[in-house]
Amino acid sequence: MKTLVLLPFQLHLKQPAFQRLEDEDVILLIEDLSFYRTHPFHKKRIVALMSAFRHHEKTLKALGFNVRFEQGDTKEILEGLSPDELLWIEATDADIKAWQASITDELNIPAFFSQDAQFILSEDDVKKRLPKRPYKMDPFYREMRKDFSVLMDGKKPYGGAWSFDKENRKKLPKNTNIPDPAWPEIDEMTRDVMALVDEAFANHPGTTEGFRQPVTHAEAEALASHFFDARLKTFGPYQDALTTQYKDVSHSMVSQALNTGLLDPMDLIRRAEKTLDAGVPINSVEGFIRQIIGWREYIRGIYLHEMPGYHDHNHYQHTRNLPHYYWDGDTKMNCLKDATNHVIDDGYAHHIQRLMVLGNFANLAGVDPKQVNDWFLEMFVDSHDWVVTPNVIGMALHADGGLMATKPYISSGSYIHKMGDYCDHCHYDVKKKTGPDACPFNALYWNFIDRHQETLAKNPRMGIPLSVFKKMDSDQVVELRKQAETILEHLESL
Ligand SMILES: Cc1cc2nc3c(=O)[nH]c(=O)nc-3n(C[C@H](O)[C@H](O)[C@H](O)COP(=O)(O)OP(=O)(O)OC[C@H]3O[C@@H](n4cnc5c(N)ncnc54)[C@H](O)[C@@H]3O)c2cc1C
Ligand code: SF4
To answer: 441 C-alpha vs ligand 2 centroid, how far in Å?
Structure first.
C-alpha cells in the first residue's frame, strides 16, 4: 500500500502524484500542530491553512479518493501506519523539503517525490529559464508568454507591447467605485478551527476575529470569478495606488488561495485573457497576468537557485531592530499605521504597501534584513519562505546586492504622497525634510543615499538621486544628517 502524505498547502486537485495512486492506496492528511509552530505565525495564517486542510478531506472523499485524516506528530503517525511506499509532493520551502527528506530517511521506507501542481513550471524548468545572475524578469516573462501562448498575436505580444505598466501608475481618484472582494461566509468547520487556534496559539500575533480567506476550492473560485467580473478592470490603473478609501484597492486577493493550491495559476491566466472579450482593458489584463506567469514563477526560480543562504544576505550591513509598530501598529506615521494595522488585523497588505511602505521604511531605517524577512513570513496569510525571501531580501531590501532587482526600491515621502492620500492625514509634513514634524521618510531617504554613496555609484539606475544629493549644499547635508540621526535615535517613538 502506498501512502501519499499531503501538506496543508498542497491542496491542488490535479496533483501529478494522484496518477500514481491505485485503489487501495491512501491519501494521508496529518494535522500536526508543530507545523504551525516553527515560527510565531499570525493566527489568521494558521486558520487559513488548517481549515482549508480539514475541508480538503471532504473534497477528496467526494472525489472518490481513499482519505485518512489524523491528528498528531507526523513521524509517529507514519511509523504506526508503516506504509510500503511513501509518496510526497516536494515542498519548495527549503526547511520543509529538508524535513520531508529527514522523515523519509528515518523511516527507511521507499519514497517518491513529485512536483506541486500549484506552479506552472517544474523546479528544473524554472531554474533552466534563469540561467545566470543577476536574474532578469523581463526576458523570463516574455519567454513564458511565448512558450505558453499567453496574450500573443502570432509571434507578437497582443496589443503591441509586452507591458502596459506606464498606464498603471495612477493615484486613485476620489469617489472611484470599486466593489469589495467576494469574501466567503465562515462555516462551522472554520469556526471550530478559529476556537482551536485561539486556545492553542494564544500567544501568536493577530486575531482570528474577522477571518475572511477562502478555505475551499469553491470559495476561492467565487473570489476569483468576482475579481474577473467586477474588479479586474480597475486593477491595472490603480495597481500602485496607496489609499485610505479601500483597504485592498483592486487587488485580486488570490495569493493565499494560489499558494495553498485552491486556485490554479494557468486557469487564472486563461480566464484573465478571456475578459478582453468582455471589454476589460489590456493594461489591467496584462498587468494581472504578468504577476502570475511572470513574477510568481520568477520569484520561485530565484529562491530555488539561491537556497541555501539567501536569508543571510545583508548588502548594506543593516543591524537595527524592527520597531514595535510593526507588531502593534502604534505610530504617528499614517502610511505605516495604516499598513501595519491592515497586517495585524487581516494578515494582508497589498503589494505597494509591502514594498514601498513596510519594506521601504525598514530599509531606510537600516533594519536587519533577517528580522524583516521573519516579520513578513510570520505576519501574512499568504506567506511561504519561497515567496517571502526573494521579495524581502531581493526586492524590498536589495539586501542581496541586486541579484534580482536592478535597483533598491527606496523612496522619500514624496512617492507615498504622489501615489495616495496618506500624507493628507498625517502627523508629519511630507513637504518638510527637517524639523520635528518633518516626514521621517525624507531625511532617512537622503541619509540612505549619503551612507551608501559608494555602493550606489556602481548602479547606473541610481544616477539621478545621487547627482541630486551631490548638488545639495553642505549646510543642507549637515542638517539632513542631524535629522536622520535624531529620527534613528527615536525610531521606537515615531
Ligand atoms: C516585501 C514583500 C513581501 C511579499 N510577501 C509575499 C507573500 O508572503 N506571499 C505572496 O504570495 N506574495 C508576496 N509578495 C508579493 C505580492 O505583494 C503579493 O503576492 C500580493 O500582494 C498578494 O495580493 P493579491 O493576491 O491581491 O495580488 P495581486 O496584486 O492581485 O497580484 C496577483 C497575484 O500575482 C502574484 N504576485 C504578484 N506579485 C508577486 C511577487 N512579487 N511575488 C510573487 N507573486 C506575486 C501573486 O500570486 C498574486 O496573488 C510580497 C511582496 C513584497 C514586496
Ligand atoms: S507624511 Fe511621511 S510618514 Fe506621513 S503618511 Fe506621508 S510619507 Fe508617511
So the answer is: 7
| Neighbour-count burial for 245-279, b at 16+ CB within 10 Å, e otherwise | ebbbbbbbbbbbbbbbbbbbbeebbeebbebbeee
C-alpha cell, 470: 551631490
Dist CA 242 CA 351 (whole Å): 10
Spatial distance between the Cα atoms of 36 and 202, rounded to a whole number of angstroms: 13
Question: In whole angstroms, what is the distance from residue 108 CA to residue 106 CA?
Answer: 5
What angle is formed at CA 183 by the lines to CA 177 and CA 184, rounded to 5 degrees? 150
Q: Which ligand does the CA of 494 lie closest to?
A: 2
How many angstroms separate the alpha carbon of residue 347 from the centre of ligand 2? Answer: 22
CB 10 within 8 A of CB 116: yes
Superfamily name and number for 2-114: HUPs (3.40.50.620)
391 CB under 6 A from ligand 1?
A: yes
Listed by start position, the domains of the chain span 2-114, 123-205+215-301, 325-493
Please tell me the predicted confidence (pLDDT) of residue 274: 97
The pLDDT tens digits of the residues spanning 66-103 come to 999 999 999 999 999 989 999 999 999 999 999 999 99
The fold of the 325-493 domain, in CATH, is DNA Cyclobutane Dipyrimidine Photolyase, subunit A; domain 3 (1.10.579)
Which of 331, 430, 445, 494 for a ligand 2 pocket mutation test, highest count of atoms within 8 Å of Cβ? 430
Q: Under CATH, what is the fold of the domain 123-205+215-301?
A: 1.25.40
